[in-house]
Design a protein that fits this description.
5 helices, alpha+beta, 8-stranded mixed β-sheet, 33% helix, 8 strands
Length: 194
């Protein structure tokens, strides 16, 4: 039987060393020390999907101060289990566990800024995964540390969505809070009309 479990700091550290280091390139990895500090401060929550004691997938979230929203920081299925629906099951069930009132934002690298067609396909596939699992594409985007991101949103309650202006204000507020020292310089949220 599969179950979702909130990770204790020691479990997060083990997953970081055994999985995050393998699943994400160095330039996309947040330092473990920062994740540990935010976890102790109640600003970070991590979850694992397990079958008995075996890790199937994991997800890490940055929790915003108002507890209305979170940002999905990491999401991955153990490599040998990918493509079997585990990621979909996990993502759809996680919204009951993430301690926020309204919903979760997801950053997905923009296909429009891909360097080649292979990278574009990977980015589109990632976005399609989130869309097929209840996320909606917003018209908010962000250039963060030189990378263009599309912003998706998963509401905590089915059928409840933020209006365009409220969504954009929430996204801007999130980035302002998370990247206060570099906001506007290395973190530039913007809206795409259309």
């Amino acid at each position: 039987m599969r179950q979702i479990k909130k990770l204790k700091l020691e479990e997060l550290k083990r997953i970081y060393k055994e999985h995050i280091r393998e699943d994400f390139p160095r330039n996309e990895r947040r330092p473990l020390s920062a994740m540990a500090k935010m976890t102790k401060e109640g600003k970070y929550a991590s979850f694992g999907l397990y079958s008995e004691e075996n890790l199937l997938a994991y997800a890490c979230y940055i929790l915003l101060a108002d507890k209305n929203y979170a940002l999905l920081d990491y999401f991955a299925v153990v490599p040998e289990l990918r493509g079997n629906g585990i990621g979909s099951e996990f993502l759809q069930n996680l919204k009951e566990f993430v301690p926020v009132e309204k919903g979760t934002f997801i950053e997905a690298e923009s296909p429009d800024s891909a360097k080649n067609s292979d990278e574009m396909q990977i980015r589109r596939k990632r976005i399609d995964f989130y869309l097929s699992n209840g996320a909606v594409m917003t018209n908010s985007k962000c250039q963060l540390f030189g990378v263009d991101y599309n912003i998706l949103y998963i509401s905590r309650e089915d059928g409840v969505e933020l209006s365009g202006d409220r969504m954009n204000m929430a996204v801007e507020g999130m980035y302002r809070e998370m990247y206060r020292p570099v906001y506007g310089r290395l973190c530039k949220p913007y809206v795409v009309e259309g």
